[in-house]
Amino acid sequence: MTKTIRINGMMCAHCEARMKKALEAIDGVVSAVTSHEQNNAVLELSKEVSEEVLCKAVTDAGYEYVK
């Protein structure tokens, strides 16, 4: 299943890579495609991942999770 989340604060490819790494470290996230231009990440999930877990990963990486 795929899920798109909105993320504010990514400014460049380095930001995208940092966010991708943080999201892919979450159990259940198979892959993450991040875009600073679109301010989002498209996640491929192997199981349901709670919004709280995703929010924590984004904020811990230094970015803003947009609900």
SSE topology sketch:
Blueprint (H helix, E strand, L loop, with lengths): L1 E7 L4 H12 L4 E7 L4 E6 L5 H10 L3 E3 L1
Antiparallel strand pairs: 1-3, 1-4, 2-3
What structural class do the secondary elements suggest? alpha+beta
Order of helices and strands: EHEEHE
Counting H and I runs of at least 4 residues, what is the number of helices?
2
Q: Got a strand count?
A: 4
CATH architecture descriptor: 2-Layer Sandwich
Low-pLDDT segments: none
> What is the level 1 CATH name?
Alpha Beta
What's a concise summary of this model?
By secondary structure, the chain is of the alpha+beta class. It has helices at 13-24, 51-60; strands at 2-8, 29-35, 40-45, 64-66. It contains 2 helices and 4 strands, in the order βαββαβ.
What can you see in these coordinates?
There is one protein chain. By secondary structure, the protein is α+β, with helices and mostly antiparallel strands. The chain has helices at residues 13-24, 51-60; strands at 2-8, 29-35, 40-45, 64-66. The chain has one domain (2-66): Alpha-Beta Plaits. Strands 2-3-1-4 form a four-stranded antiparallel beta sheet. It is globular and about 30 Å long. It starts with a strand and ends with a strand. The model has no long low-confidence stretch (mean pLDDT 98).
Pick out its properties.
4 strands; single chain; Alpha-Beta Plaits; alpha+beta; 34% strand; 67 residues
